[in-house]
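Escalated from tier 1: glutamine holo job.
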Amino acid sequence: MAWYEVKNSGAVAADDRYKHLKIGGLAIQGAVAEHLQSLESCGAGALAVRKPSALAEVDGLIIPGGESTTISRLGRLYGFMEGIYHLVEAGKPLFGTCAGLVMMAREVEGQQPVLALLSITARRNAFGRQRESFEADLDIPVLGGEPFCGGFIRAPVVTSVFGEAQVLARINGIVVAARERNCLATSFHPELTDDLRLHRYFLEMALLGSAPKAARQP
Ligand code: GLN
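Tier 2 regenerated the structure:
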């Protein structure tokens, strides 16, 4: 079995401070179940967001990996986009992983951006095809000293970072994680390991739900 088919189930103590939070996982297409499991392992409530109306119930949202063209097409068709903007403009955090990063980027090489919320340029499928998937130990200073094992599955990379966006991680000098205000995105899949530090980092953002907010472009 390949590493990306494995969801390790190491026990990690849930944090009581997160128990009042309910975080949504956008369940249009893609790998949402593992994110919900990671959030629950952290001690937060998790909800698969299958209808736009559910966006009003959550304290933050994760856009999972999958196929960004499919997620954006169906997201528009079913009317999720406005609710995602409302959520972000209300100061709730948005976390995009892999296809989710592509969805959030203000610029996507060779195509129109989708949500255009995070001041980065994304290059899709930058490491090649599915069989070129790999995992790598990443140095993510905001998570502390221990390396974070990220899984890259037909992953995008960040080719430029502008505005107020901050680089959180690089691999061989290439940006693979960034944050701007309440928008967080990674090229890789943090939900496929036991390591809950990125989900906890996101839950800390949710606790600070009233921090300065990202806004859609005029
Ligand atoms: N290549 C996909 C895209 O651009 C992302 C792959 C993934 O999310 N694992 O949408």
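Confidence is low (pLDDT under 50) at residues 1-11.
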